[in-house]
Amino acid sequence: MKIYGLELLRGLTITLGHFITSYTVGFKRTFKNRLRGRVSQHPDDKGIFTVQYPEERLKTPERFRVLPMLIFDGKKGEQWKQETERCTACGICAKVCPPQCIWIVQAKDASGKAVPKASEFTIDVDVCMNCGYCAEYCPFDAIKMDHTIELGGGERHQSHLFDINRLHVSTEYYAETHPKAWAEEQARKKADAEKKAAAAAKKSEPGPAA
Amino acid sequence: MTQPNVLYNPSEEQILEQEVRRHILITPWDKLLDLVNPVYNWGRRSSIWPLQFGLACCAIEMICTAASRFDIARFGAELFRASPRQADLMIVSGTVTKKMVPMIVRLYNQMPEPKYVISMGACATAGGPFKEGYNVVSGIDKFLPVDVYIPGCPPTPQALLHALITLQEKIDKQSIRTVRWYKKGPAEEVPVPRLGPDLFDVRRSEEIREKCAAPGFTSEPAATQKPAMIPAAKTTPTETEGAAPAAAALSRRINEALGPDTAIPAGASLVVSAGAIEKVGHYLKVQPDLHLDYLANLTCTDYQDCYEVVYHLASTGKPGVPIALKVRADKTDPRIPSVTSVWRGADFQERECWDLFGVWFEGHPNLKRILMWEGFEGHPMRKDYLEPYYESPAKIFPSRWKEGHHRRAEERTPFGDNVTYPAGFNPEEWVEPKESFRPGDAPSAGSAHTDTLVVNLGPQHPSTHGVFRMKIRVDGERILALEPVMGYMHRNHEKIGERNTWLMIFPYTDRLDYICSMGNNFGYAITVEKLLGVKPPERAEYIRVIMAELTRILSHFWATGFLLNDLGAFFTPALYAIEERELILDLFEMVSGSRMMCNYFRFGGVAADLPEEFMPLALALIRDRLPRAIEQIDRYLTHNEIILNRCRGVGVLPRDAAISSSAAGPMLRGSGVEYDVRKADPYSIYDRFHFKVPTFPEGDVYARYRIRIAEMWESLKILEQAIREIPKGEIQQGKKLWNIRVPAGESYGRVENPKGELGFYVVSDGTDHPYRYHVRAPSFINLTALETMCKGHLVADVVAILGSVDIVLGETDR
After folding, report:
1. pLDDT tens-digit profile of A108-137?
2. Which end of chain A, N or C, is less packed with Cβ atoms under 10 Å?
3. CB within 8 Å of chain B, chain A residues 85-144
4. Taken in order B566, B807, B159, A52, is the CA torsion positive or negative?
5. What is the spatial distance between Cα B612 and Cα B598, in angstroms, rounded to a whole number?
6. Residue B738 is nearest to which of A58, A137, A155, comparing CB atoms?
7. pLDDT one-digit tens code per residue, B357-373
């Protein structure tokens, strides 16, 4: 004789299991993680926990990418200036951008001669596909991918066109969001500077022939 | 006391008023209503029921928002309603295409007030990366009032939750006095746009008519430079040196058997005379030593001197590289015999060639448009077809740099939108061509003389896995005939791809089968690497395999979970199945920066090395969590009586039919064909790993389900080996370049993606962008066999059968 409903019960035990785990794991987590702000899950944990957004947020890995941002050398809260701007308007980001959402105007000095700075830099956020090519291929570490996701709003025609002022963030901000990349960049720059100094020292020394 | 004080000398009325004021609190009606507002708004903001409606990639993130990790229920918005009549919120999640927008507007009109719209992601907001495409609407706000826009591609689940909170804040500010649904008069409906030679907004009919009638009006965009065209490859007579030896030998053999000049070699492929293609196909299929029974890919290229249709043939019995046959059609009136009688799998692919290239296939049983709609003007993949937003023949657009003053694409077109019409077009007189349907040819089920009925399923349906539609002819509940209708998410991947530089295509491939972006990257990378002649370093190869196999596991988890959804076990099994997916996505996000759109592979390597925290997490996942989760699903479902009853013997695809209709992946192996590209045409380093190709001979829904479970176990085996053996070292061959030129030539590369054989066919003319770029999409071609599987079954089984095929619309429609 076939007994109907056994499979149904078995299915329900699984649901019950998930239900119970959600409490045991949940309680543990409540004491461990509560109000930490940024949370992440290790695969050793059982089950899966709910991120209590907006009180807590998932920890974003450093490579996380949403929209591009321009970097200038300075502190948070400072205004970017052409001197501190890292971008040289070389245009590689605009050339490598798959949906072609980056628009750059090269700056000119008083006499009308082009200088290696950008005077206008526009990103159409509604076309950008967050691919990260601009940051990956920029030779000057001038454009990076921001981590901000809370961008929703009721308007798009003005606010979704990011201009050069909206795009610029300080190196201090960048160092906070990308600590590893920042450390690498500093190390590389230091090494380059040392190499340059060594080369310069060598040059200034009188050669054996002279 | 000269002035009499009124207070001391009040009239009767004044006394009365004073008394009333003293004892009764009088509030004006408006103020009273404002007191109700907080309660009224609290009620609405805490129970926003979204419409169960997804368009593209963003819909996947929307589903994740509803799943355990982000749990949209915390905001009272977990009740996704399948019917617009019960929904408050429409989350427009993904690319809005012209073919789909009439349905979206209709759905919106059916929603009762109060109703809200969230435009999720760049595509819904303004067309996104696909904005330049000919079938893409530049923003849903052209038709519907949008409350919240979310930038991002795709926005993460947390971004969607943020948007929901933003919407709640907006609701909090509403006042019962001013809301539009308590205004007098009938509710305003948005007029449904119509599909003519292009999409037209009926509110603008008059303007369109006037502009089209104006003298000198042309439908072509203002840009001056058209794409350059190249001639087709030269053929070489068999006897001369220069032809590839294999191709020369094969052509000699064909010519001996079927008459001289039937096949001439051209490089590594054969050019077959148009009249003989059916004969040659049949000959190659029946020859026991060749046994080319599997039509892997069929597509067309628009050359200067001809349309060249290319057939990639493989054998399911014998491993090897596919053989390419080509047929050239005249430029003015391209006509070619159909090969559907030899390989049924040619059916949809020939329709696609007709739709996009205008090549007519004589003898095709049902040749009509497949991705665009009947009545659409032009064949968009032809090189001389220019979209309304056309700017220049290839990227990089010169307007972007040095003097890149931003200008919206809309500003360049006569209609201020992504539309164009033929001169003299009058929208008011436009009549849509009637949709044809092949009459059902199956005999009536019972003896009673019942009428047959056509039922429409989709494109908005919770169980069609996206915007897919089926026209079904039923007799009672039994299916007599079924016709898939697609193109509701056709976002012009190939047309945009032919304008992109080689590197730019990578992030677009992410958006093909958006569940498996790593696998898509893989396929494209190896295809172009064949032409470039580069080989990634060892470590990169291992990383690639690890990513591809993790992708396979998460895709099969997804497919299994949602198959259960289709069987009626709504959402609980799917929730459990996609739990582990979240952890795999964490890994992807860690290495590539994005959960879904990884864009991680590069020519000759990968974008970045694995971060140091990757390995411990991956090991814990692969050795512990994933086996546990697969085991649980297996234990829970494999012997479940409901699964057995609903799946066994349902949707049977016999072995021969599976091969003939070019089914791929779990579909093919579920019908007992041991064919896996990883073994049949090994790529990357798959020849080093020990794994089995599981097959089940039954060919039913249950067999396809079992295949997926078995494949997950095999993937774990591969992962275990890969993680153990991965060497240290470089991850990129040579220097990483952004401006790559690919040597002239053509290449067909294929990988075994979770859905089946994913192929890329590229033709290079030696420049920095492909001349022809085609995707052989398993989700698209697998649907060829859908009717065969569904015939004779009940309507309720159709969704289960479709679920077992496991389609992703981004890939089906491209």
Report:
1. 888 888 888 888 899 999 999 999 999 999
2. N
3. 89, 91-92, 94-100, 102-106, 114, 120, 122, 124-133, 136-137
4. positive
5. 18
6. A137
7. 999 999 888 888 899 99
